[in-house]
Specification:
With about 280 residues, the protein is an alpha/beta fold. About 40% of the residues lie in helices and about 10% in strands. It contains ten helices and nine strands. Strands 1-2-3-6-7-8-9 form a seven-stranded parallel beta sheet.
């Protein structure tokens, strides 16, 4: 709970949003008790095999004032097997990493779960379950919260998402941890933006954001905003909440400087004219 709490507090101080993951230790009640009441929070979920698990998260998010649901759609299967972590993590010594999975293999969960159960047992089957577009339609029928799809990398998927009435799309490659060889989010971003042009869908991006320059590139290619993961964790490791806040403020300052050096006095002046793909500077073979 410590990491989720300090990330949320830092995000609130910086005036930005925090997305709480559904695979972790933290319950919404614990988080709500630890952060300012006006903290802008979104809830990440998977479309679990047992819909009762999904609804458990959705209802708690609604109750606690979360503003949106972020549905991860790029993980129908797990890329890494549990044995890949042998010798790195002591599976059997880690208890109850997920308070949200109330049902496993169709039965109500009793007691705690070890990390091995989550990533190599019934929890794995519950999370990675080949959800489809009809599951998304079902979710939309269950809540009035805006739905943001995370993990879209193609124009076709973006158009289909628009047809199902989603409010936002996060162009993401899951931190490069799911499928080798997929396009970098920055490369996929323009096609996704063009695919939903004329709709009310907001397009965001994550992956590879390390400097203010990276933020400018994403905004120039049509992103409404960007998300970060690893940099925030690095900040937390160095100095807790203050470290995360410092990371966010560094990015904000670098963004401001990069904008000025590009001749942009406001975010609205950032457009595609200020970026070029590196292939434009190399002779075609």
């Amino acid at each position: 709970m410590m990491t989720a709490s300090l990330l949320s507090k830092a995000a609130a101080r910086a005036g930005t949003v925090m997305v709480l993951g559904s695979v972790g230790h933290t319950t919404l009640d614990e988080l709500a008790a630890a952060v300012p009441k006006d903290t802008l929070l979104w809830m990440q979920i998977y479309l679990f095999r047992d819909k009762r698990n999904t609804l458990n998260i959705v209802r708690n998010a609604e109750r606690r004032g979360f503003r949106a649901l972020v549905v991860t759609v790029d993980s129908p299967v797990a890329r890494l097997k549990a044995k890949s972590y042998e010798g790195v993590l002591e599976f059997d010594k880690v208890e109850a990493p997920n308070p949200w999975m109330k049902y496993l293999d169709g039965k109500r969960r009793d007691g705690t779960l070890g990390l091995r159960d989550i990533w190599a047992g019934p929890g794995l089957r519950e999370t990675y379950c080949f959800a489809d577009w009809e599951d998304l339609r079902w979710l939309k029928s269950q809540t009035k919260l805006p739905i943001v799809l995370k993990g879209v990398l193609s124009a076709d998927s973006a158009r289909r998402a628009a047809g199902f009435g989603v409010s936002g799309i996060i162009v993401s490659a899951h931190g490069g941890r799911q499928l080798d060889g997929v396009p970098a989010p920055l490369d996929a971003l323009p096609d996704v933006v063009n695919a939903v042009k004329g709709t009310n869908i907001e397009v965001y991006m994550d992956g590879g954001i390390r400097t203010g320059n990276d933020v400018v590139k994403a905004l120039a290619l049509g992103a409404r905003a960007v998300f970060i993961g690893r940099p925030a964790i690095y900040g937390a490791a160095v100095d807790g909440e203050e470290g995360v806040y410092r990371v966010l403020k560094i990015l904000e300052k670098e963004l401001s400087i990069s904008m000025a050096l590009c001749g942009c006095s406001s975010l609205s002046e950032i457009d595609r004219s200020i970026v070029k793909h590196e292939t434009e500077f190399h002779p075609k073979l």
